[in-house]
Amino acid sequence: MKRFAALTFGAVLLATAILAVLGYLSLRHWEASAALLFRQQARDMAVMAAEKIEMTILKSEEECLSGLQRLVLEPAFSPERVGAWKASTPLVDRVYLVDRHGAFLYPREWKAADAGLLAGLLAEISQGFWDRGGRRHFLVGDHVVLAAVLQDAAHRPVLAILGRDEEALKRDVLPTTVSALEGKSVLAVLDRADRPVYTSQPLDGARRILTVNFGEALPAWRVALYQPGGVSPEVAVQRQTMLFTAAFVLLLVVIVLGLGATYRVVRRESEMARLKSDFVANVSHDLKTPLSLIRMFAETLELGRVTDEAARREYYGVITRESERLTRLIDNVLDFSRIEGGRQRYDIFASAVEPLIQEVLEAFRYPLVQQGFKVDVAIEPDLPEVPLDPAAIKQALANLVDNAIKYSGARRRLTVSARRAGAEVRIEVADEGIGIPPAEVQRIFEKFYRVGRSETQGRRGSGVGLALVKHIAEAHGGRVSVSSRHDSGSRFTLHLPLRS
Fold it and tell me: What's the confidence (pLDDT) of residue 460?
């Protein structure tokens, strides 16, 4: 009996020691993960600041070009009007207008330095740029200039070259855009010589964490994120580590008293917590993108920086489309909850297929254009009406289109087709993306399942989209099929019977 007790006590001590080692390693891993998470959040904040600053600059330049275009279109165009416009535009400190033959329209008198600058710049302007139009940023010496092709009253191309006033940029643009992102960290904008040109707070004693480059609007400037003195995240992580260590010691005492009884419960609860955490994290990430776009465009409209009516309508359209995208994401979660609870119902009646496809593609028009997709639509004429729930079928198609966008690689091509095949109508969504391994094709319709490849794990998702597609297809008496090849794309097909 004593020997049995000793063996039992020794086994418990051994298990406790193993758990202690595992707990220590887990705490060290958590500490490293917390530091990595902090750095990732800091990078996200710096990237958001850089994107917001650059978008504000680009929007201001767009407004400047619109005003200059109106002047050039006037039949009574005169350099004096351009000079007056330049004086009322603080962001622009230099304006040059040149026709296609190299004749200078503004200003009337050129300095030698201007002629040398423009000679090199005009040499970089191709004939295709004159024909296509558009705009492009050039780095000339230490300054960024914007070149754009305008049209005069006789529909002849006029090259407008705008030089940016960096002092006005520091004074008018940076404070209004960076101040909205202020927090415990300090955001700073650094010039080409690594000198701060704007800081949200004083940098005394602050430690630089990371820097992020701007795009073409500010190619030589960067956004830097600083951590103020005395607010070090490492100290906070160490305090949390000590707290967790103490809690872990107490937990070990409890484990010694009831290791066998609590093992299964702890494992089951840990697994459930992980699944819930992954699901919430993935859904939260999917919700973050449309919310960020809605906020960004709404703030721009609220600040009154968009004076052009067409631009305002475009902004309102983006807000509407991103709101619809947000609604789709929320509907996915709510419908999945209703399916899991057995409460989902569908209102099925005879409906045309083509309007549903067009509505879905219109909802995705902005991300498709923004990401450079070529979309091919092939709908067979005179398709019969199909008994279906329009909202549910649109939701299924939206999930398939969203997946095609998310998992496309360098070949950004999307094909949507609908045709009759015997007693059913087949709606196909095909892409030329990364494809699905053959061994995992049948598992992609399982809830929460993610394809276990490195190139897919970086693409977030709730894991319920294809499960919803399968449920919707089967609820209509049909099915969903998929054909895919590695690195050659995937083709998903909804089979909808013509009879309910």
Answer: 52
